[in-house]
UniProtKB/TrEMBL annotation:
Species this protein is from: Desulfosoma caldarium
Site (Positions MEP for the nucleophilic attack): R160, K216
Top-level lineage group: Bacteria
InterPro entries: IspD, IspD/TarI, IspD/TarI_cytidylyltransf_bact, ISPD_synthase_CS, Nucleotide-diphossugar_trans
Name the UniProt record assigns to this protein: 2-C-methyl-D-erythritol 4-phosphate cytidylyltransferase
């Protein structure tokens, strides 16, 4: 690690403390095995291979902290991954992750623990956009016709050329993110993603192109896609990739 990296360190916060109700398994979906490896391990490997990420805070259910610490060690990343307990909402878990960041961290990559298929290019693209503007997300433009409906009846057709389906990674300057989460706590803002809170500060959030395969594994059908993709996608995420030279 070079001295300049000490000045501009980037950490990833990985919310993985959900219970996976929509998946309907008897264990949290982030620990479900795909090709013999927990989904969360696939995701951590992607992040560990990014040269610009200096460390990871994994936020997990309280009773899984020890298990995930051991999992990180088994990936050869025990020293790079800090494991903390999450909260009731995703937002609470991210907040717990932010509290565990070291003082040296200035940029934060937030990535769902159950999005194991994000490519390195997607992380770079989102990170680069954030470094320009302070905040960036990735998203896919809606391809189907978009309608609003209520009680089984169409209410309106929404012009889809401005409808973006948002994913993670989402990348932020740490101070912006902390201010957003501080105000969210003070004013009881609820949000399904992190950028929504930063937007409420009046900060402009850049959008870069997401990836169709970067799904959030949510329901049992998603496991089929993920299983196929993880078997067939390029093996470019060596767990010890962190040892590569950083930019
Ligand atoms: N209290 C929570 C809820 C969610 N998450 C994490 O946020 C990501 C996206 O959430 P989601 O897919 O909704 O996961 P779950 O909350 O587990 O799913 P469900 O809503 O079906 O229970 C997941 O990695 C999940 O573990 C979290 O860290 N803490
Ligand atoms: C952050 C997110 O993955 C962006 O699409 C999504 O909003 C998480 O939502 P969930 O309700 O926690 O699944």
């Amino acid at each position: 690690m070079t001295p300049s990296n000490h000045l501009e360190q980037t950490f990833a916060v990985v919310p993985a403390a959900g219970s996976g109700v929509r998946m309907g398994l008897n264990h949290p979906k982030q620990f479900h095995l795909l090709h013999g490896k927990p989904i969360l391990a696939w995701t951590l490997e992607r992040l560990l291979a990014l040269p610009f990420v200096h460390g990871i805070v994994a936020v997990v259910p309280e009773n899984a902290v020890g298990f995930v610490a051991a999992l990180a060690s088994s990936l050869g990343a025990g020293a790079s991954v800090t494991v903390v307990a999450g909260g009731a909402r995703r937002q609470d878990s991210v907040r717990a992750g932010l509290r565990a960041l070291p003082d040296t961290c200035q940029w934060v990559v937030i990535h769902d623990g159950v999005r194991p298929m994000a490519s390195p290019e997607l992380f770079y693209r989102t990170y680069e956009a954030a470094r320009q503007s302070g905040a960036a997300i990735c998203a896919c433009l809606a391809q189907d016709t978009v309608k609003m409906a209520d009680s089984g009846w169409v209410q309106a057709t929404v012009p889809r050329d401005r409808v973006w389906l948002v994913q993670t990674p989402q990348v932020f300057r740490r101070d912006l993110l902390e201010r957003a989460f501080h105000l969210a706590q003070a004013f009881e803002w609820n949000a399904t993603d992190d950028a929504s809170l930063v937007e409420r500060l009046g900060v402009r959030v850049a959008v870069v192109e997401g990836e169709k395969f970067n799904i959030k594994i949510t329901t049992p059908e998603d496991l089929l896609w993920a299983s196929w993709y993880l078997e067939h996608s390029p093996k470019d995420t060596a767990p010890l990739g962190r040892q590569k030279e950083r930019p």
